[in-house]
Write a structure and sequence with these properties.
Blueprint: H1 5-25, H2 30-40, H3 51-63, H4 77-109
């Protein structure tokens, strides 16, 4: 059976809650979560300029040069070690600029 557009939006919103909750409790790497939330921006049935999701689009854009998530496997150990301080600083910055939006996504869509 084909999924309706509304069902698809509901599934994506639930995923957004899972990701944001994981970012808040530390079970999902904060930058990986931000990248995923940015990618969900157009799939959750909101205007493309939604404040909460735009925050993660900004974070994703700022860290797209770093070895985060699945692409890490293709980076050398030396490069991973060299970028680790920047990754840690980026996590701190990302939390500062998007923590309230992370909490808002959980509150908005956690049914």
């Amino acid at each position: 059976m084909k999924m309706s557009h509304e069902e698809s939006i509901e599934i994506k919103r639930k995923r957004a809650v899972e990701v944001a909750s994981g970012m808040l409790d530390g079970s999902i790497h904060y930058l990986e979560g931000a990248i995923e939330l940015a990618s969900l921006r157009f799939d959750v049935g909101l205007p493309e300029d939604d404040k909460d999701f735009l925050a993660f689009t900004g974070v994703s854009s700022e860290v797209d040069h770093l070895p985060i998530g699945a692409p890490r496997q293709y980076w050398s150990q030396e490069a991973l070690e060299r970028h680790e301080p920047e990754i840690q600083q980026s996590i701190k910055w990302a939390r500062e600029v998007s923590l309230s939006e992370c909490k808002s996504i959980v509150a908005r869509f956690n049914a």
